[in-house]
Write a structure and sequence with these properties.
alpha/beta; 10 strands; aminotransferase
Length: 371
């Protein structure tokens, strides 16, 4: 087991960082893994490179521990988007998805429709981007074979009710883009059929890391359209083209980045050692501190306040004429945040320090005094 304090000690970023929703600076654990494998790869001591081959099983087992999916139903992917496209291009029928989701989902569905003509996007109407079971129930049709949703909405910070969605969609495929909450939201992934995530945000594993998890139902209904030579049951399929594997392995194109696999595995193992529930509670506390500061300085909070509806994302929505002032104040005080669509997104993690919150307070003080 790893304690929460030990986990927090692995946050190496300088104070003021509140943009995990964009990218999480790699952890100390991942940095050490990266250095070790880079050295191994550079030296290539006799017999040593064989160790890199163990990274694939290691990362699948680590992902299995956090999702509940069997390891042979998980496959490494270099990004959330690539995992989603692997799954969505293999679906037939209507896919219910909100156009307000992060572009990975709606673009994948639309491109699959344009290219293959066997899948059709059905655009879900939502209340300011929040995908809820009731909205899905009202807009379901018999032609809908799959529902796609983000675990955490990138713009609003809203956490989807996966249990509730599963209850209303029945045996249709449930596809989850999990990247904005994976590792910090204690979600019931077992109710999903497809879980795709990257490791570069809240897991802090760096770019080029991710995985795709598929349920038995998904494996039975989704055709691996982009299945390369590594997607068969043979080690190297020379001289003849065998059928694709009947496991998640089919959803591969070529050999993966073994170093990236090791980095993701180490990050996932660390999360499991601490416990997602404990990390989630720490993230919720950090986000609550940010909300309290916004309230103290009279800045509207557009993201959910209820703890069960939010994770680490807090969206501030000042008056339109004040947005530039707020952005400038954060910049001048060294606070890293994301400004988009009339709001400022602050993303707090379990390792967010008192010094960082103090810098945020200083920025908000300067902003308030600018009037």
């Amino acid at each position: 087991m790893t304690t929460l304090d030990e986990y927090r000690a692995g946050f190496l970023e300088e104070p003021g960082y509140l943009d995990y929703g964009s990218v999480g600076p790699i952890s100390k654990t991942v940095q050490e893994e990266l250095y070790a494998h880079a050295d191994l790869f550079a030296r290539a001591r006799f017999g040593s490179l064989a160790q890199l081959g163990h990274s694939d099983e290691r990362v699948r087992v680590a992902a299995s521990d956090l999702t509940g999916f069997p390891a042979d139903q998980i496959v490494f992917q270099p990004s959330t988007t690539q995992g989603l496209m692997q799954a969505i291009f293999g679906i037939t029928g209507d896919v219910l998805v909100s156009p307000a989701e992060f572009p990975s989902l709606p673009v994948a569905v639309q491109r699959a429709a344009e290219a293959l003509h066997v899948v059709n996007p059905v655009w879900l109407e939502t209340d300011h981007g929040k995908v809820t079971p009731s909205e899905i129930r009202e807009q379901l049709t018999d032609a809908v074979t799959a529902v796609a949703v983000s675990l955490v909405d990138a713009r609003t910070g809203y956490v989807a009710d996966l249990d509730g969605i599963r209850q209303v969609i029945g045996d249709r495929l449930l596809i989850v883009d999990a990247i904005q909450g994976f590792g910090v939201v204690d979600a019931p992934f077992e109710v999903a059929d497809v879980v795709a995530t990257g490791g570069q945000k809240w897991v802090r594993a760096g770019w080029g890391t991710g995985f795709l998890a598929l349920s038995e139902r998904a494996l039975g209904h989704i055709t691996p359209v982009f299945s390369g030579w590594t997607g068969t049951d043979l080690f190297e399929p020379w001289d003849a083209v065998p059928p694709y594997a009947r496991t998640a392995k089919a959803f591969t194109v070529s050999n993966p980045d073994r170093v990236a696999q090791a980095c993701l595995a180490s990050a996932l193992e660390e999360v499991a050692a601490v416990g997602v529930a404990e990390i989630s509670a720490a993230v919720a506390d950090a986000a609550a501190r940010v909300i309290d500061l916004a309230d103290e300085y009279g800045i509207a909070v557009a993201s959910p306040r209820a703890e069960n509806e939010r994770a680490g994302i807090v969206v501030l929505e000042p008056e339109p004429e004040s947005l530039t002032k707020l952005t400038a104040s954060l910049h001048n005080h060294g606070v890293t945040a994301r400004t988009r669509g009339g709001g400022v997104r602050l993303s707090a993690h379990a390792g967010t320090t008192e010094e960082t919150l103090g810098m945020l307070r200083g920025a908000l003080t300067s902003y308030a005094s600018a009037y």
